[in-house]
Amino acid sequence: MMRALALALLAVVAAAPAAHAASPISLTDGFYVDPDSNPAVWVRDHANDGRQPAIKANISTKPIARWFGAWSGDIKSATSAYVGRTGSKLPVLVAYNIPGRDACGGHSGGGAGTPEAYRAWIAKFAEGIGTRPAVVVIEPDSLADFNCMDNAKIAERTAMIKYATEQLKAKAPNTWAYLDAGNAQWVPAQTMATRLDAAGVRNVRGFSINVSNYHTTAASTTYGNNVSGNLPGYTKPYVIDTSRNGNGHNGEWCNPGGRKLGTTARTGGGAEMLLWVKVPGDSDGKCGKAPGVEAGKFDPQLAYDLIYGY
């Protein structure tokens, strides 16, 4: 009797679905190209602009992440609608609504008004994705700009990020989520590893590097390997934002000149994935080559210059 019961229990366990049924890569067929990205909308609306053919061929027809924040409206509906229209392709989403956002840079400030509001927002963000395959980058720069925050704010933010990892793990089981880890020259690898561990990187797939920055893939890979190697007793894979790193970093971060598009979205390439996380042509803020363009707004000249390295 006991043996029969034990065998029955084993059969139930064997039949139960895994928390993560499969990787989102194996569940899809290549990366999703967003027909409503900022550059795609500009291309549709400016057929007679001399820069249009180049921007269409080199940017708007490539897979680029979609960023979500307060501007997205009802967030569960927004993420659900987005992943729902990607068909067999893999969407890349960015959660960008942490309170006190861009504490050091300032150009992209904002975010949810309170920690409680953020927790409600990120829970609905994850619910909107549900069981459909996706890639999510969690809160760019949020673990890197601690030197512009006091200890209480750091602890508060770390708790919010950890909650985000828990929500994505529980509610979006076929999503590979990555905690953002800044870039190769911002925070020492050992320090960043400590921050990632405290913020719940164990709960998600791994971490992201170079979001909205310009460091080469080689430099980012070296940094990523060092961060992963400093995690306490485990390692994690990482992804690299290659949207604007074709000419590397020149010491400036806000709409610098002479930068260039990098490798388009792919698996492998030194990291688990190379992704266009930052939208090429979207301004970093009212600075550098686009002193009159607010952060997140598309500027065709910025996009055009990235194609040719101007």
TrEMBL record:
User: Which Gene3D superfamilies does the record cross-reference, listed alphabetically?
Assistant: 1, 4-beta cellobiohydrolase
Query: Any idea of its EC number?
Result: 3.2.1.-
Q: Which domain of life is it from?
A: Bacteria
| Extent of the signal sequence | 1-21
Q: Give a GO biological-process term.
A: cellulose catabolic process
Pfam families assigned: Glyco_hydro_6
Listed A to Z, the keywords are: Carbohydrate metabolism, Cellulose degradation, Disulfide bond, Glycosidase, Hydrolase, Polysaccharide degradation, Signal
Record PROSITE patterns: GLYCOSYL_HYDROL_F6_2
Q: Does the keyword Signal apply?
A: yes
Q: Main EC class of this protein? A: hydrolase
Q: Which family does it belong to?
A: Belongs to the glycosyl hydrolase family 6.
Q: Protein name, please?
A: Glucanase
Question: From which source organism is this entry?
Answer: Lentzea aerocolonigenes
